Amino acid sequence: MSKQDHGTRRAFVIQKHDASQLHYDFRLEIDGVLKSWAVPKGPSTDPSEKRLAVEVEDHRLDYADFEGVIPEGEYGAGTVMVWDNGNYENLREDGMASCHQDGMIEVWLEGNKLQGGYALKRFRGGKKPQWLLIKMQDDAADARRNPVSTEPDSVKTGRNLKTIRQEEGE
């Protein structure tokens, strides 16, 4: 398949999303859209922790900057913050679309909170394919660090979910 995007820098965003259940939306720019996975426990910096990541619908690229409240009755209703963002590089020789189709994505994140290698491995197909999000063993791996609990606020505005909900209003 195509090797044109190996080493190419693209955008990623992780949005903390307080919808019917609090989760983190892990999004990678692939072929002009944000491929997206809902990660209930959020990403980890510990390579021994495998986090469930359920593939959800693609989003437009401009959604990467969205922070606010999605009204009741709309898809994804709830409060959304930009928890982390930055650029990523594909670590595999195949193009990102091919990696996604094959169920094995390996990327190098250069974010505000997360850095280093992460793998997404599909282990169950179906309507909502299930993947595992796994931190690779590298210099940014740290079993003692837990950015989900120690760095809860937005990298875009510094606000927490409660403040966003109050300021953006439901």
Q: How would you characterize the overall build of this protein?
A:
The chain has 170 residues and is mainly beta. It has three helices and nine strands, in the order ββββββαβββαα. It has helices at residues 96-102, 147-150, 161-168, and strands at residues 9-18, 22-30, 33-39, 50-60, 68-70, 78-90, 104-111, 115-124, 130-135. An eight-stranded antiparallel barrel has the order 1-2-3-4-9-8-7-6. The N and C termini lie far apart (46 Å). The model has no long low-confidence stretch (mean pLDDT 94).
Q: What is the secondary structure topology, with strand pairs?
A:
Blueprint: E1 9-18, E2 22-30, E3 33-39, E4 50-60, E5 68-70, E6 78-90, H1 96-102, E7 104-111, E8 115-124, E9 130-135, H2 147-150, H3 161-168
Antiparallel strand pairs: 1-2, 1-6, 2-3, 3-4, 4-9, 5-6, 6-7, 7-8, 8-9
